[in-house]
Amino acid sequence: MSSRTSRVDAAGSVVPPQDTYLGMPPFPTAAKHQLRNSQQRSNLTHATRTIRGKRNALVADKDDWEQLRSAGAAIKDEVLTHLDEYLLQFEEAATAAGATVHWAPDASAANRIVGEIAVEAGVSDVVKAKSMATEEIGLVEALAAADVNAYETDLAALIVQLSADVPSHIVVPAIHRNRAEIREIFATNMGTFGEPAPADLDDDPTHLAAAARHHLRQKFLAAEMAVTGANFAVAESGSLLLVESEGNGRMCVTMPKTLVSVVGIEKLVPTWRDVEVYLQLLARSATGEPMNPYTSVWTGAHADDGPTDVHIVLLDNNRTDILADEVGRQTLRCIRCAACLNVCPVYERAGGHSYGSVYPGPIGAILSPQLRGLHDDVDRELPYASSLCGACFEACPMEINIPRVLVQLRADVIDEEPALKPSAERAAMSVAAAGFSHRTLFDIGEKAAGFAHRLIRNERGITSVPGFSGWFSTRDIATPPAESFSSWWARTGGADDE
C-alpha cells in the first residue's frame, strides 16, 4: 500500500510525501492486507468500542435525542435546498466583518489560493489545525511544493505526520496506533520536525501529551500564519466555529497574524440558534462527551484582537454535483463525527487505510466516490465495502441513510460499466432477472426449488454450487421450502391450513 514518505531536508524544511492515497489498491486487496495486521486490529477494536460505549451512555441519557437528530437533518436539508442564498448571505456578512472570502471550485484552486496567501504574507512555516477539507485537497503537499512547511498541531494528526503515515479515522487520525508505537514515533522523529522528545520519554499518555505540547509550543510562538477548517459556518453573521478537545485549534485561530480557513460549502447553518442543535449532536457522537472542551468562534478580523488578516476559502470540489443527486445529496449533511466508523464491523476489522481515501468507513464509502467520481477501481469498489447491516444509519446523528446511498452507488457502478467481465455471479444474476421478469419462468423456478427441497439432506442447506466456491466459502443458503407461496395460495386461497 502506498504511504507517505515525508522527511526533513538538510535546511530543516519538511519535504512532502511523494504520494498520499494515490496508487492505493482497491478495497478488497487493501483490506486483505490490513487484516493481517493483528496489532492494528486490536488497537481499532479497543478504541472504537471505548468511544462507542461513551457515546451510547450519553445518548441514552438524552430524552430528546431522536428529535435532535431529526432537527439536525432538517436544518441541513434547508441549507442544501437554498445553498446559493445562504452562501451569498455568509459572504456578505463575513466580508462586512473584515474577512476576505475566496471561492474555490476545486482542490487545485483552493491550494493555489492558500499558497498565494502564504507567499504574500512572506511566511515559510504555517501551523495547521486538523481539517478534513485540507486533507481532502492535499494542502500540506501543495504548500510544500510552494516552499511552505505546514505543521500539524492536533495530537493525532501530529503522530500521523511524524510517522509519514496517512490518517485512518475522521476524528482520531492515529486511532490505529497504540501508545507504545506513539512513544517510538516521538522518540525517533520528533527532533527532525522541531523540538525533540525528552530522552527518557516513556509511553505514559500524560508524558506523551506533555512532549507534544512542548514540541508544539515552539511552533505556535514562531508561526505568523495558521490554516484551519471549520465545523460550522453561520450564514447570518459570517462566523466560523471550530470544536476540538486539545486547545491547539484555539491557538491557531488566535496567535498568528494571518488566518486562513478552508471550509466546505456544505458546512453552512442559517442562524446561531441552529448551532445549538449541532453542538449537542457532534460532541456526543464524535468523542462521547456532552460538550467539546474547546469551541472557538471567530467573525472577521479585528484590530488588536487575534489575526488581523483573515481569509475564508469556500470549497466546492464536486459538492454541487452531489447536491444535484436526489439520493446522494443527503451525504452533504455529514458533520464529520465518525459515529458510523465506530459502529462499523467492516471498518473495525479492515481499518481506515483500506478505503484509499481521507474519508474512511461507511461515510467514506459514499462520500469519496461522489467527490472523486467512479473513474477508477478504488472508487468503484468502495460502495461494496459494506455488509449493509445498517448500524451506520442508526448511529448517524444526521439521519444519513448510508445503506440506501451505497445501493444507489452500486447501481451507478453497474450503469457505468455495461461491458462487465463474464463471471458465474453475473450469469446467475442474469438468469434471476429473466426469471423474475416472466411469470412462466418464475413458476418453473418455484417448482425447481421444491424439487431441490426433496434432494437436500444436509441440515445446513445448500453449502456449495459449482462456480461459486468463493461465495459459499463463508455462506450457506437455507433449504428451499417444500411448497412455494404461490402454490400454497392457489391451494388454500389464503386460508390457514387445518
Could you characterize the architecture of this molecule?
By secondary structure, the protein is of the alpha/beta class. Among the domains are: about 80-155 and about 225-315, Rossmann fold (3-Layer(aba) Sandwich), CATH 3.40.50.10420; about 425-490, no CATH class. The chain is about 50% helix and about 10% strand. The chain is built from 23 helices and twelve strands. The chain has helices at about 25-35, 40-60, 65-80, 85-95, 105-120, 130-135, 140-145, 155-160, 180-195, 205-220, 250-255, 270-285, 320-325, 340-345, 345-350, 360-370, 375-380, 390-395, 400-415, 425-435, 440-455, 470, 485-490, and strands at about 5-10, 15, 100-105, 125-130, 150, 225-230, 230-235, 240-245, 260-265, 270, 295-300, 310-315. Strands 3-12-9-6-4-5 form a six-stranded parallel sheet, with helices on both faces. It has a four-stranded mixed sheet with strand order 10-7-8-11. Helix 2 (about 40-60) packs across helix 12, helix 9 packs parallel to helix 10 (about 205-220) and helix 16 (about 360-370) runs parallel beside helix 19 (about 400-415). The longest helix has 23 residues, at about 40-60. The protein is globular and about 85 Å long. The protein starts with 6 loop residues before the first strand and ends in a 6-residue tail after the last helix.
